[in-house]
């Protein structure tokens, strides 16, 4: 038993609500930036290459902090770690629009990304502890709230801009909302955040390495739909550019619905069947998009990818909490880092492969990867 275990009772309803709020904040905060990227590009007169480097700063900040975030949770507890990261995120949000120069924007994006990286890891540490105490599947619902937050954040900024607000006012208002939600969750955040005294960072090992590899494959697939679905529909299926974006919308809607209903699915089918069937359904979705000649079939394929992938990653985080190869906080940090690397590196690698072969062939590799995930489902989910 750790010091934190003795200091507070077992997590209950208040902690479950707070965990959902923090996941909502994570999706909400990161998504407010997306609609404002064109404004930042125009303000600082960035060309496409410079913008790409700016966006890379956000990802690099996250990846550098994620491996260390588990150690922060163990040393300071989930509550202090989440509150500190959340406060920094709320400060960075308006600063994204206030940055007067390219170096300052790069710095703000790096700090924003680092804070998001800490939040991503520690909220999953809290989620693992809360789910374990509840004795039932809860992780899909937590991750579903992240998706809902993403829709609310991007939609809130876009709606505020449509009403005539300035970019600074739009994101400033969203930062205030995030801060209020963070304060409301405070009492339900866990004082504890780890399994006793351990190093701040160790390399993933044992089943954690396998769980992290599955997350890498699933996040890579998600990133591929985000970055390449519209390009695929327009360049390969000759879809109207005005409607090609609905490929990602279809994916996001089915994924969100799948996660919000996923706890009952996991409870009914079990972790192994959810990962096995989910990976195969996602593989079938990519296969449909690649082989069927119509744009409508492509939309249906990407919707299938979302439905299949929805609950695989939440189940993997639960598995990271159950394994005994590594302490929970370090395992969750490792799995989060490996998964995020899939989002950060995967789509760029697919672009390189597509240039050498074709975009359809590059997406076809994801089918192979998802079938591989299905093949290791039993090993990845066993207790």
Helix-strand blueprint:
Elements: H1 3-7, H2 13-33, H3 37-43, H4 48-98, H5 102-134, H6 139-162, H7 167-185, H8 207-235, H9 241-244, H10 246-260, H11 262-269, H12 271-291, H13 295-309, H14 312-322, H15 328-356, H16 359-375, H17 377-381
What does this protein structure show overall?
This protein has 383 residues and is an all-alpha fold. It has two domains: 3-188, Growth Hormone, Chain: A, CATH 1.20.1250.20; 207-381, Up-down Bundle (Growth Hormone, Chain: A). The chain is 82% helix and 0% strand. Helix 6 packs antiparallel against helix 7, helix 8 (207-235) runs parallel beside helix 15 and helix 15 packs antiparallel against helix 16 (359-375). It is globular. It starts with a helix and ends with a helix. Its main location: membrane. The chain crosses the membrane at residues 21-40, 52-74, 81-99, 105-130, 142-162, 168-185, 206-225, 245-262, 274-292, 298-318, 330-353, 359-380.
Key traits:
Growth Hormone, Chain: A; 383 residues; MFS_trans_sf; membrane; disordered N terminus; mainly alpha; 82% helix; MFS; transmembrane helix; MFS_Transporter; globular
Count of DSSP helices? Answer: 17
> Whole-Å distance between the termini?
21 Å
When the domains are counted, the total is 2
Question: What characterizes the major β-sheet?
Answer: none
| Fourth-tier CATH superfamily name of the largest domain | MFS general substrate transporter like domains
Fraction of residues in β-strands: under 5%
CATH architecture call of the largest domain: Up-down Bundle
Order of helices and strands: HHHHHHHHHHHHHHHHH
Question: What top-tier CATH class of the largest domain fits best?
Answer: Mainly Alpha
Shape: globular
Number of strands: 0
Summed over residues and divided by their number, the pLDDT gives a mean of: 91
Amount of helix: over 70%
Please tell me how large the radius of gyration is: 20 Å
Give the uncertain stretches in residue-range form.
1-7
**CATH fold-type name of the largest domain:** Growth Hormone, Chain: A
Structural class: mainly alpha
């Amino acid at each position: 038993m750790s010091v934190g275990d003795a200091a507070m009772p077992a997590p209950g309803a208040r902690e479950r609500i707070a965990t959902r709020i923090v996941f909502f904040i994570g999706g909400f905060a990161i998504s407010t930036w997306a609609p404002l990227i064109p404004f930042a590009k125009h303000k600082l007169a960035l060309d496409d290459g410079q913008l790409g480097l700016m966006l890379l700063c956000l990802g690099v900040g996250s990846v550098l902090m994620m491996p260390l975030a588990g150690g922060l949770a163990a040393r300071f507890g989930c509550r202090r770690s989440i509150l500190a990261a959340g406060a920094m995120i709320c400060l960075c949000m308006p600063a994204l629009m206030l940055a007067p120069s390219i170096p300052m924007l790069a710095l703000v994006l790096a700090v924003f990304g680092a804070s998001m990286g800490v939040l991503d890891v520690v909220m999953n540490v809290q989620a693992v502890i809360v789910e374990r105490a509840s004795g039932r599947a809860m992780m899909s619902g937590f991750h579903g709230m992240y998706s809902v937050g993403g829709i609310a954040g991007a939609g809130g900024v876009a709606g505020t801009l449509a009403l005539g607000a300035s970019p600074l006012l739009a994101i400033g208002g969203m930062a205030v909302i995030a801060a209020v939600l963070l304060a409301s969750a405070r009492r339900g955040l866990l004082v504890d955040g780890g399994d006793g005294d351990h190093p701040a960072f160790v390399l993933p090992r044992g089943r954690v390495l396998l769980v992290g590899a599955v997350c890498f494959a699933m996040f890579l697939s998600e990133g591929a739909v985000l970055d390449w679905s519209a390009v695929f529909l327009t360049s390969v299926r000759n879809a109207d550019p005005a409607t090609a974006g609905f490929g990602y919308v279809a994916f996001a809607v089915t994924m969100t619905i799948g996660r919000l209903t996923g706890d009952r699915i996991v409870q009914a089918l079990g972790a192994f069947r959810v990962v096995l069937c989910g990976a195969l359904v996602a593989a079938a979705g990519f296969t449909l998009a690649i082989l069927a000649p119509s744009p409508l079939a492509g939309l249906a394929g990407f919707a299938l990818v979302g439905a299949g992938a929805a609950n695989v990653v939440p189940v993997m985080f639960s598995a990271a909490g159950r394994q005994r190869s590594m302490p929970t906080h370090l395992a969750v940090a490792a799995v989060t880092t490996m998964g995020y690397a899939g989002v950060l590196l995967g789509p760029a690698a697919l672009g390189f492969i597509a240039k050498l072969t074709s975009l359809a062939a590059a997406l076809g590799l994801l089918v192979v990867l998802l079938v591989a995930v299905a093949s290791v489902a039993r090993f990845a989910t066993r207790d």
